[in-house]
Amino acid sequence: MKISIVEDNKTYADVMRQVIEQTGSFNWQCTYRSGEDALVNIKDNLPDILIVDISLPGITGIQLISELKKKYPDIRFLVCSIHDDDDSIFSALKNGADGYILKDSGIDDILNALNDLIKGGAPMSPYIARKVIGSFHRPIETDTAEQLLTQREREILEFTATGLSYKEIADKLHLSNLTIKKHMRNIYSKLEVQNKIEALKKSRLL
Asked: Where, per the database record, does this protein carry 4-aspartylphosphate (predicted)?
């Protein structure tokens, strides 16, 4: 199985490469330092599994996964990140991540995650898995986002579901960053939620 990584932290990328090469079970292909680098060059060496960090210079790992999933649906994407917040987790899964592990995972956990992906599984760090399971235990809402939100608010929420930042949404809609934040506050208030991921779930965009 061919493995590549998108990681701007050279030390971490080098450690991952060393660990994977020593197993003898995987073939290391490429290290990409940014999402843009991967978008341009991955076609030359398509991996079976792409390990992706979320916090990258330029486009985010979530945006990268979303773009590559459309072009190369057979690639399996494993997020390996320090981020354990709801927004990062569910946005990554919504946009095509096949697994999500934390960077403080042990070597055995990382290798087990890669093997799970090969077998068709969806590996997650225990903390991430608990968050995902917990999301199904929340009550179903009666009012829909379509009834509660304006057209502009629904449009902004849809952009949010793709992983775009407030600034990127503002640029697309030719609005100010402050205006986008104001709309998001209104969305939270109308949907009676506290963050983006809860808003996306309640609006059925997740």
From this structure: 53
